[in-house]
Design goal:
By secondary structure, this protein is α+β, with helices and mostly antiparallel strands. The protein has three domains: 349 residues, Phosphatase 2c, domain 1 (4-Layer Sandwich), CATH 3.60.40.10; 54 residues; 76 residues, Alpha-Beta Plaits. 33% of the residues lie in helices and 25% in strands. The protein is built from 13 helices and 26 strands. Helix 1 packs antiparallel against helix 2. The longest helix has 51 residues. The two termini are 41 Å apart. The relative contact order is 0.12.
Length: 538
């Protein structure tokens, strides 16, 4: 089947959820590529990592891959993901507060009648085909390893204490960043769901399948899935992208000089990456729009009320429509540059490529005071002696205010230290008792050992001691296990610590065996290349 017979239409919703303080997920829904990235690494790190991944992948939305062969698109997709990894690592090295950040990635491209899927991490890609749900990815997680080795069941994995540990991600870790790549023949009616583990964690596959089958409208379907995940108790950010494949004629996919974006939807950017709309528009070289917000479960009538009618939008300028354009209005040269403007919800933002040279910056004069003279006239010229005197007084007042704030800050710090020292005496006894009920695995004399307590020091006092040492040499373990042992692998009991040690011993035996090279299989138009798994903590 030729590629021009199929068109990809997509949408996405990304929500911070009820527990996390900020949204570290990012998503892209376009006409050529859809993608989800689940960031990790703290308040700023996760945001930054997932945004870098989506911005790096967004160039695939230009659609040039339609004219390339499948192998070249596979190579381009893999190189793009590795480039995102390099960018994340580079930024983490430059900015220490971003150390340890990373992100998962799931991306699907439609090219010449085939789906090209890239996957790394524990986000998921589902394909609904002829009513049957296919989980197209395998989680690169510690609990998935335990499932594969028969240690736990899938049901037990949902509540496992190490369920947040991922074995492969992009980012500032000593981990293999190569994604799993698979290629399969595209069929009309195919429906993809890419989602972060904030959705796949609380929802069963059967529930996901019922929604994908039972709700044809993709906007309604993605809203329903995210709402269900939150109501099911998701403690994470929740992001979902739905992409539908449908038959389309050649004219519907090819642009003309008069209508450069004819037949293409405006790409949607969601989550943390929505804060980088302008830069993503420059990469794609087309307008982009922030994803619609999550609405609570609504009726069809309420849903229709959320959308402004075409007639209302045709009669009003963009500013009056509640749509923010994140670029100078004179860069929007034709209505066709914003083909989906009539379906935007209030509050969504639009960014267009910055084709023209930006204006020269205007000097900030907000610190220059306006002085009223005795005759009632005003003076704002900074060379005027009256204004100079006013500026001097203003600066003196600012200096006094700064000294006052610093003095108050020193007092607050001193009070805080005294309160802390008082609290230490009260909490110390309770903490000491609690620490002795904890266990963890770490290194001792070059071997893996079990410690009772917690892996930390308090005022120079070590809060743990060794209780058992194995014969597993730390040097024989993969780099990801060495990194986790350096931080300490926690356990709630000695028995659980022994179970972790058994798993590590098995990993050491497997690491000693030669690993199989990367391979690609093809089944019913599907090929795959999956690198060997390594590990990291989310």
């Amino acid at each position: 089947m030729a590629e021009h017979h199929l068109r990809l239409s997509s949408t996405l919703v990304s929500n911070v959820g009820y527990v996390r303080p900020n949204n570290q997920d990012s998503g892209l829904a376009g006409s050529h590529v859809i993608a989800v990235a689940d960031g990790m690494g703290g308040h700023a790190g996760g945001d930054t990592a997932s945004t870098i991944a989506i911005r790096t992948l967004s160039h695939l939305e230009r659609g040039r891959q339609r004219h390339e062969n499948i192998d070249s698109v596979v190579e381009t997709l893999e190189k793009s993901i590795l480039a995102a990894h390099d960018a994340i690592v580079g930024k983490a090295k430059k900015e220490r507060q971003l150390s340890g950040m990373g992100t998962t990635v799931d991306a699907v491209c439609l090219v010449r009648g085939y789906w090209v899927l890239a996957h790394i991490g524990d986000s998921r890609a589902y394909l609904l085909r002829e009513g049957q749900l296919i989980r197209a990815t395998k989680d690169h997680s510690y609990v998935q390893h335990l499932i594969d080795t028969g240690r736990i069941t899938p049901a037990e994995a949902k509540n496992h204490p190490q369920r947040s540990v991922v074995m492969r991600v992009l980012g500032d870790f000593d981990i293999d960043p190569h994604p799993d790549i698979s290629v399969r023949l595209a069929h009309p009616g195919d429906r993809w769901l890419l989602c972060s583990d904030g959705l796949s964690g609380p929802l069963e596959d059967d529930t996901i399948a019922d929604s994908l089958r039972g709700i044809p409208d993709r906007e309604e379907c993605v809203q329903k899935l995210v709402n269900m995940a939150l109501k099911a108790g998701s403690a994470d950010n929740v992001t979902a992208v739905i992409g539908d494949a449908a038959l389309a004629g050649k004219r519907g996919l090819h642009a003309s000089a008069a209508r450069p974006y004819s037949g293409l939807q405006t790409p949607l950017i969601g989550g943390a990456a929505a804060g980088a709309l302008a830069s993503i528009a420059d990469v794609i070289r087309r307008p982009v729009v922030s994803a619609p917000p999550l609405a609570e479960d609504i009726s069809p009538a309420q849903k229709a009320a959320l959308l402004l009618s075409d007639r209302e939008l045709d009669d009003q300028p963009a500013a009056a429509q509640g749509v923010a354009v994140a670029a100078p209005t004179d860069t929007v040269k034709a209505p066709d540059q914003l083909p989906d403007i009539n379906r935007l919800q209030k509050g969504q933002q639009v960014a267009v490529p910055q084709d023209e040279k930006p204006d020269e910056p205007v000097a900030d004069t907000s610190e220059i005071p306006i002085v009223t003279k005795r005759d009632g006239s005003v003076a704002t010229d900074p060379s005027n002696p009256i204004v100079i005197a006013a500026i001097s007084k203003q600066r003196e007042a600012a200096d006094r205010d700064l000294h006052r704030r610093r003095r108050h800050e020193r007092v607050r710090v001193l009070v805080g230290i005294l309160l802390f020292l008082a609290a230490v005496g009260v909490v110390g006894g309770v903490a000491a008792h609690w620490t002795q009920s904890q266990y963890y695995l770490s290194e001792s004399g070059g071997y893996v050992a079990i410690y009772q307590g917690v892996p930390t020091n308090l005022f120079g006092i070590r809060l743990s001691h060794e209780v058992d040492r194995s014969r597993v040499a730390v040097s024989s373990l993969p780099a990801n296990w060495r990194q986790q042992l350096a931080n300490g692998i926690g356990a709630d009991s000695y028995q659980e610590a022994r179970q972790h040690l058994t798993t590590i011993e098995e990993q050491a035996r497997q690491a000693a065996k030669p690993t199989a090279g990367q391979n690609r299989t093809q089944d019913s138009g599907q090929t795959s290349a999956q690198p060997a798994a390594t590990g990291a903590a989310e």
